[in-house]
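Researcher: Please translate sequence to structure tokens.
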Amino acid sequence: MGCSLCPRGCLVDRKAGQIGYCGMTEEIYAARAALHMWEEPCLSGEEGSGTVFFSGCTLQCVFCQNGAIADGSVGKAVSIERLAEIFLELQEKGANNINLVTPTHYANQIKKALEKSKKEGLRIPIVYNTSGYETVEAIRGLEEYVDIYLPDFKYISKDLSLRYSNAVDYFERASAALEEMVRQKKEILYDRRGRMKQGVIVRHLLLPGCLEDAKAVIRYLYQTYGNGIVISILNQYTPLPKTANIPELNRKVTVKEYDELVDYAIALGVENGLIQEGDTAEESFIPQFDFEGI
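Model: Translation complete:
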């Protein structure tokens, strides 16, 4: 049976070595596994988030900040057994959590690795760090494995989601997946240090020229879930060489644009929110995919 893990439903036989829309076969490829200090404070803290960056992506946004691995061209093969070891090694290094970045197309293998590592002593929370472009069925299958959902919520506009992510159904899919995530983790829990143990953090990366759609995203999230989720508003969009031919994306977000979005969220009543301060649109937020920890 062909692959239907993500909404693309490309139905290729990845087990037989065919390549899906995600750019990958069923063999796990990853590019980095290390303590990451630049996630939300309740995830990274001072110790770091144990972040595993997987190769390939089901969405393939034209502006992807992790484009070096999203297209599947960079990565090292990892067995399920080795992935389980990586989780335990990150815990041993003091990670606050295991942070699975772009995991959708490897969900089945990741679950097997988690089962193995938990039998061997893995006890820290599991973070599912996703583009938000998910099927409800896939998210439902993660309920017993994931403690914290960390989805993006990129667009309301069908025009933007088609133009930048070739996914005209992005809002439909992301909103349905988020509903399931919140059903599973409707209570937000922190430990005594303020590190999240359970909950949903929804990220929105403000894109240049997309302020009105960003407001629509924040409005939808707040009107639907109130302060039952954490809304993380990001200003770290970084124009990369591949956006040079997309004029509206070939610049950073202005301070005025970001401040207006934050003020809008506050005016709506958002209290359970996170913002970024200063000039974060720097390459320091884009890690080196040098196979560290793989």
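Researcher: Any highlights?
Model: DSSP finds nine helices and ten strands in the chain.
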